[in-house]
Structures are given as structure tokens and as C-alpha cells.
């Protein structure tokens, strides 16, 4: 009966009062995307092609506007819900999940820092309504991988801004509708005085300088480019990039990357479980695998770390002072190091549990792609560099 | 106090321009102060003024200008003063 059916829906809303839309709606949308990503994952990996189908599914489900307020046509979901989606998609295809995560990081930076000028409100509306995919051009040749340093600078020519940037990596640069780039504020600004500019693909020329041929994360198509752009001056995000990095880009990146990796680890353990069950059935032994039991414990600890840091960010996210402390910077850096190391350990352990079937690349429990994708986590923002930064910050910080 | 702050900045801030050219309210980050140099500035200020900054002051904006540093130093509780 209709009245009886209405009850659980009310309960779901009551349980998630902060949700921007019916939680079930979000779960169903994400499930559809994850299923699509899973169908194409093997080919995306083997051929090193962009997961076009998964991103089309994200568009169809409105996921590219997830972080944008409902009043601007987005879904207005919480950071926890987006992180959960990263993990769900990550269980099926790490490249699709990482593209989703990177897009959300760019949107978050705009939503939280572009202010409420009409130009930006219109731009956000357009991102939501046209489901525009946003790539990032933050890295640059010659700055040693430091997000907070730029060589290139914004220039003004008449009414327009111009930018030329040597980008060693722009993930899915060729497939994106917009590119968010860092650059020095002016030609005479120091390396750390940066701003963000949101470029339409039609305002850019991308000359490809390298091809992404990597062990894993092959579908991110993280080719290198020389980026040249001409853009309206309004497209420069007014707030200093230093603040955007500290308050949003760095913590949200590490939270969403860690969530993608949690998904990869979860699926690797699932495959190990399948394998251990098959083995128990075959051999008639019911003792199970203690190695698998350890792995599950490790996975639960990993999940705990991600949830704890999501809670911490949610508690601080509207307080720039709380986001800006050295103590919080250390925490966020530790999330990245802990999550990536957990991922590699868990996936490697899962392969041993699955044995030769896991090592092979042609079985239902193959862990090959997971292992190759996982190793990338150690070097995308190299852990050694993050630990060195923390060593320096720990000279100052007193937070335990 | 400002002279002592400026002296610390001269030796530790590694700015892109000379501290003498900057006003007391000039944005040091725009002048090239990096997060790594901020740690050195903070440690040098603690030595110079024989204090310890509480965690709540270990913020970007605490070290954003000569004025901001002065304000922070004056707000450090006496219990944080080193014996």
C-alpha cells in the first residue's frame, strides 16, 4: 500500500538530514556509474584509453555537478557522499574513479573560493547543466612537483588574459571541457604568489609533448602538454591560490584520492575472499586463511582512517583558521602517506591470498590491474616528498 | 620590536625582495615567503623573543606581515614564555 511504502523513504531522509538530495537517489546514481565503469575497466586499462563510457554515465546521472549547490542546478551532496562515490567507483575502475575525484576537486576549489559574482555563478550553473568535465593543470616543468610554485605567469593583453604553461601532466586534458590552471599572479610575482584560472577548452590550444604510458592508472590519459590560452579576465579566481590550496585543494585531494584507493583495496580483498572460499570448497578445509583475516583487519583500519579524516575535514571545512594550521597540514599529509601505503600492502597481500590465480591476468580473481594502479599512489605526489615536508612542519607544530 | 622582527625576516624569510622595501602591512607571502621558510621564521622568532607559539597561532596568517607577526607575539600568553 502506498502509505506503507512511504515510511522507509521518510526514515532515510531523517537519517541523513544534511543530504542535499534523497540519499537513495545518490546511491542509485553512483551504482549505475560504478556498474558502467566496471564493464569497461579491463579494456580501458589494456588499451590505455579514457573511460569515455563511465564519464558519459556520470553526465547522465548528473554526477559532474555533485558538489554544486542545488540552487545552481547541481546535486548539492556532501563531501562524505562524494568520497563514498569515489570508493564505489574505485571498486570497479580506478581510472574512472580518479577522473571523477579530480573533477570534484576542481569543482570544490571553484565553489568554495570563486565567490558569488554573477560571472562565477553563471559558470557554475553551466558546469552543472552541461555537465562539463574539468581537468587540472597544476604541475609544471621545472618546479620539482611543488603545487605551490609556478614558473608561468598570467599576462594581460588588452582586455584578455593570456597564459603559456609547460604542463608535464594534464590528466584527461584532451577529453576535458574546462581546464583549471595555476600560474603566478603577474610576470614579476614570486613563484609562490599564484592564482587559479578556469579555461574553456575552446580558449586553449594543447600541443601534446608526451604520451601517458604508465604501469597503472592508464585510463587517466595523463599526457604532457604545452598549454596556451587566451581568456576573459573574470576567469581568474579572485582568491589567492595559497588559500585555495590549504583550505580546499590539498585536503579534498587527499580525502578523495584516499577514498578511490579504499575502493581499490576493497575490491582486491573481495577477490582474495572469493579465492579463499573457492580453495576451502575444493579442499574441504574450513579453517580459512589467516592471511586474509589480517588483510580484512588492515582494510577496516584503512577505512577507519579515511572516515576519521572525512569527519575532521567536515568539522573544519567552514573555518579557515582550523584548516590553516600546521597541525592540520601534517594530518592531511599523513592521510596521503597512510592511505597509499595501506593500499599497496593490502593489494599485495590480496594477491598472495589469491595465489597464482591472482597473479595471472586472465582469471576472475586477477589482482594485476589493482596492483599496478596501487603502486601509482606512492608516487602521485611522492610520499618521500610529503614525509620531508612533515619533518619540517613538525619542527614547528605542537599538535599531537 | 618591529626592528627585531625585520631582522629575523631578513635572515630567515628568503623573500624575493628585500624586507627593507616592504611596508609593515605588506603581504609576505606575496613577497615570496614559502611554507618551508615560515617554519624557519617561526623558530627564529621563538629564539629571538624567547617564547613558544601555541598551536592556535601556527597559522599562515600569523606570519603574513610584520604587523601580523607583531600582533601574534603580543598575544602569546606569558605561560608560553620560556623559563
List the quaternary state of the chains.
Answer: heterodimer
Number of strands of chain B: 0
Instruction: Spell out the CATH superfamily of chain B.
Output: ACP-like
H/E series of chain A:
HHHHHHEEEEEEEHHHHHH
Q: Give the uncertain stretches of chain B in residue-range form.
A: none
Distance between the termini of chain B: 20 Å
Work out the helicity level of chain A.
55-70%
What's the CATH first level of chain B? Mainly Alpha
How are strands sequenced across the largest beta sheet of chain A?
A: 2-3-7-6
Question: How do the helices and strands line up, and which of them pair or pack?
Answer:
The complex is a heterodimer of chains A (400) and B (83).
Chain A lengths: L1 H14 L7 H25 L4 H9 L18 H12 L3 H20 L4 H12 L4 E4 L17 E3 L2 E8 L10 E7 L9 E7 L3 E7 L13 E9 L8 H43 L6 H27 L3 H4 L2 H34 L8 H12 L3 H11 L7
Parallel strand pairs in A: 1-4
Antiparallel strand pairs in A: 2-3, 3-7, 4-5, 6-7
Helix pairs in contact in A: 2-3, 2-4, 2-5, 4-5, 4-7, 5-7, 7-8, 7-10, 7-11, 8-10, 10-11, 10-12
Chain B lengths: L1 H11 L22 H15 L16 H10 L8
Helix pairs in contact in B: 1-2
Summarize the structure.
The complex is a heterodimer of chains A (400) and B (83). With 400 residues, chain A is α+β, with helices and mostly antiparallel strands.
What does this 3D model show about the protein?
The complex is a heterodimer of chains A (400) and B (83). With 400 residues, chain A is α+β, with helices and mostly antiparallel strands. Chain A has three domains: 19-129, Acyl-CoA dehydrogenase/oxidase, N-terminal domain (Butyryl-Coa Dehydrogenase, subunit A, domain 1), CATH 1.10.540.10; 134-235, Butyryl-CoA Dehydrogenase, subunit A, domain 2 (Beta Barrel), CATH 2.40.110; 241-393, Butyryl-CoA Dehydrogenase, subunit A, domain 3, CATH 1.20.140.10. Chain A is built from twelve helices and seven strands. In chain A, the strands form two sheets. Chain A has a four-stranded antiparallel beta sheet, with no helix packed on it. In chain A, strands 1-4-5 form a three-stranded mixed beta sheet, with helices on one face. Chain B has a single domain (2-80), classed as Non-ribosomal Peptide Synthetase Peptidyl Carrier Protein, Chain A (Orthogonal Bundle). Chain B is globular and about 35 Å long. Chain B starts with a helix and ends in an 8-residue tail after the last helix. The mean pLDDT of chain B is 88. At the A-B interface, helix 7, helix 10 and helix 12 of A face helix 2 of B.
Amino acid at each position: 500500500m502506498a502509505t506503507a511504502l512511504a515510511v522507509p523513504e521518510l526514515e532515510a531522509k531523517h537519517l541523513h538530514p544534511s543530504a542535499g538530495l534523497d540519499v537513495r537517489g545518490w546511491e542509485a546514481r553512483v551504482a549505475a556509474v560504478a556498474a558502467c565503469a566496471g564493464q569497461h575497466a579491463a579494456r580501458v586499462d589494456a588499451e590505455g584509453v579514457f573511460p569515455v563510457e563511465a564519464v558519459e554515465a556520470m553526465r547522465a546521472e548528473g554526477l559532474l555537478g555533485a558538489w554544486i549547490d542545488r540552487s545552481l542546478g547541481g546535486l548539492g551532496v556532501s563531501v562524505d557522499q562524494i568520497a563514498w562515490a569515489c570508493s564505489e567507483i574505485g571498486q570497479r575502475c580506478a581510472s574512472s574513479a580518479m577522473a571523477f575525484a579530480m573533477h570534484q576537486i576542481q569543482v570544490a576549489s571553484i565553489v568554495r573560493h570563486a565567490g558569488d559574482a554573477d560571472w562565477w555563478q553563471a559558470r557554475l550553473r553551466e558546469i552543472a547543466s552541461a555537465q562539463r568535465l574539468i581537468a587540472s593543470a597544476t604541475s609544471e616543468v621545472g618546479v620539482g612537483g611543488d603545487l605551490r610554485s609556478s614558473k608561468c605567469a598570467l599576462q594581460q593583453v588588452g582586455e584578455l588574459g593570456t597564459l603559456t604553461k609547460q604542463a608535464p601532466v594534464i590528466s584527461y586534458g584532451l577529453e576535458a571541457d574546462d581546464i583549471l590552471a595555476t600560474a603566478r599572479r603577474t610576470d614579476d610575482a614570486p613563484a609562490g604568489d599564484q592564482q587559479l584560472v578556469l579555461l574553456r577548452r575552446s580558449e586553449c590550444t594543447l600541443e601534446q609533448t608526451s604520451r601517458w604510458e604508465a604501469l597503472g592508472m592508464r585510463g587517466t590519459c595523463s599526457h604532457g602538454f604545452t598549454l596556451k590560452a587566451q581568456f576573459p579576465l573574470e576567469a581568474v579566481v579572485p582568491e589567492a591560490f595559497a588559500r585555495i590550496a590549504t583550505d580546499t585543494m590539498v585536503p579534498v585531494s587527499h580525502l578523495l584520492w584516499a577514498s578511490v584507493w579504499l575502493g581499490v583495496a576493497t575490491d582486491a580483498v573481495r577477490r582474495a575472499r572469493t579465492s579463499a572460499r573457492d580453495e576451502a570448497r575444493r579442499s574441504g578445509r574450513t579453517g580459512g586463511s589467516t592471511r586474509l583475516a589480517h588483510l580484512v583487519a588492515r582494510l577496516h583500519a584503512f577505512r577507519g582512517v579515511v572516515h576519521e579524516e572525512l569527519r575532521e575535514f567536515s568539522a573544519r571545512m567552514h573555518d579557515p583558521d582550523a584548516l590553516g594550521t600546521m597541525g592540520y597540514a601534517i594530518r592531511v599529509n599523513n592521510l596521503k602517506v597512510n592511505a597509499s601505503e595501506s593500499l599497496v600492502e593490502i593489494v599485495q597481500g590480496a594477491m598472495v591470498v589469491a595465489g597464482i590465480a591472482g597473479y595471472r591476468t586472465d582469471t576472475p580473481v586477477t589482482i594485476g590491474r589493482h596492483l599496478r594502479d596501487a603502486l601509482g599512489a606512492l608516487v602521485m605526489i611522492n610520499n618521500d616528498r610529503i614525509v620531508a615536508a612533515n619533518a619540517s612542519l613538525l619542527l614547528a607544530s605542537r599538535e599531537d | 620590536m618591529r626592528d627585531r622582527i625585520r631582522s629575523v625576516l631578513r635572515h630567515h624569510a628568503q623573500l624575493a625582495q628585500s624586507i627593507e622595501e616592504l611596508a609593515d602591512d605588506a603581504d609576505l607571502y606575496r613577497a615570496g615567503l614559502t611554507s618551508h621558510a615560515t617554519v624557519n621564521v617561526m623558530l627564529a622568532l621563538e629564539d629571538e623573543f624567547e617564547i613558544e607559539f601555541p598551536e592556535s597561532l601556527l597559522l599562515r596568517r600569523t606570519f603574513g606581515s610584520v604587523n601580523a607577526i607583531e600582533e601574534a607575539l603580543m598575544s602569546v600568553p606569558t605561560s608560553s614564555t620560556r623559563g
